[in-house]
Every structure is written in C-alpha cells, then in structure tokens.
Amino acid sequence: MPFGTHLVESRSLMEIKRYQNKYCFKKRSVAEHMWSVAKIAEGLAIWESKKFGNKVDMAKVLQKAINHDMIEQCTGDILGPTKKKTQAMREAMEEIEEIAFREDIESHLPKSWRNQFKSYILNPKTDDVEGQIIRAADIIDTMIESIEEIKLGNDIFRAVLIDSSESLIKVDLDSVRYFIKYAILDFDIDIKEFFGKELFSFRETLHFDPAVFEACKDIREE
C-alpha cells in the first residue's frame, strides 16, 4: 500500500500546465486549477445548502474537487474540445483514462479507498448536486482564468470566456444562478461584451425572492 507514492506522484500536477495550445501571460498548473475549483465549489455548496436549503455533502464536494483532474498526472492536460471532438474520441479517452487509473493510480491507494477515488477521478461530474457543483466550479475557474488573461490583453481568451459562460447557464443549480446574477459583478468587466449575449439575456431573466436575498446579504457585503 505505497500511499506515499500516490502523494509524490500527485505533485506532478504542479508542473503540468493548462492551455497547452494557447499563449498565456499567466502559466497555470493543473494543481492550481484543482485548488481553485475546490474553493469555488466550497462557496457554491454553502450557498446551495445554507441559502437555498438543498442538501449537499460538503466532504464529497471537496473530495471530488481535489481529485477531478487527478488522471492528468498520467495523461497530461488533454484539451476538452479535443477529447469531445467525436464520439469515437470520447470513447477512446474514457478507455485510456480507465487504463491509466488501473495501471498508475489504483495500486497506490488503500483497497478500501479505490472505488470511491475511482469515481471521484474518472466520473466527478455526476448528475447529483455534488457533481453539478463540480461541473459549475470547473467552468467558473475557466472563466476566471479567461478574465485574468483578457485583462492582461490576451484577446485569445474572449472566445473561451463566452463558451464557458454559455456552458455555465446550463447547470441547473440555484447557487449557480445566484452566482450569475450577483457574483459576476465582482469581476469588474462588462457583462454583455465579455460574457456574451446569451449569459447577459439569461441573467436578465433571473429574479430572487427578496427574503432569500436578505438571508445572504451579509455574504455580499463582507
């Protein structure tokens, strides 16, 4: 049970860079991305449970967040559009990741952990609330990365931001809609110009009960 080996090999994610096909002013690692996703997911989970009264397993959320790209220690950061280009490519990637987990990760985990870690690593974005929080947090981190690049003058990421915005509005969570209505204001860029017409129009349709807003007013003000 060489769990120490798992810990050492996991650190390779600090060196694996994201966006290998794009010029970036700020070079971000997969490990940095997973930390950011965990932080975003934590906030969404708090809103989802404390503000909207939906049951959320915070431990499950955070475990999914810090493992959701762990397979990239074996495969590297293969770009999402490449993975999903065709059905055959999607199926091939699933097979590759399954083999990589079995050959390079599974044996370094305690036996009683393996099934759980496998689901967190290979299928983190499940249809339950925890999985959808991870889906949203992953998208939001891409949006934040894009905003940082755009503010530095890297217009390549304008299209990435719009594509991500269009993906975010499809996540069916109250916390995500609340994020879209209020939190994106904190990024201090023009919503319609940079996030795109689709998110702008969707945001205009969102309305929350004043009592719900008051319940979380202290979070917005602090």
From TrEMBL:
Residues 26-152 form the HD/PDEase domain. It comes from Spirochaeta isovalerica. This is 5'-deoxynucleotidase YfbR-like HD superfamily hydrolase. Keywords: Hydrolase. GO terms for molecular function: hydrolase activity. The keyword Electron transport does not apply. It comes from the Bacteria. InterPro entries: HD/PDEase_dom. SUPFAM superfamilies: HD-domain/PDEase-like (SSF109604). It holds the Pfam family YfbR-like.
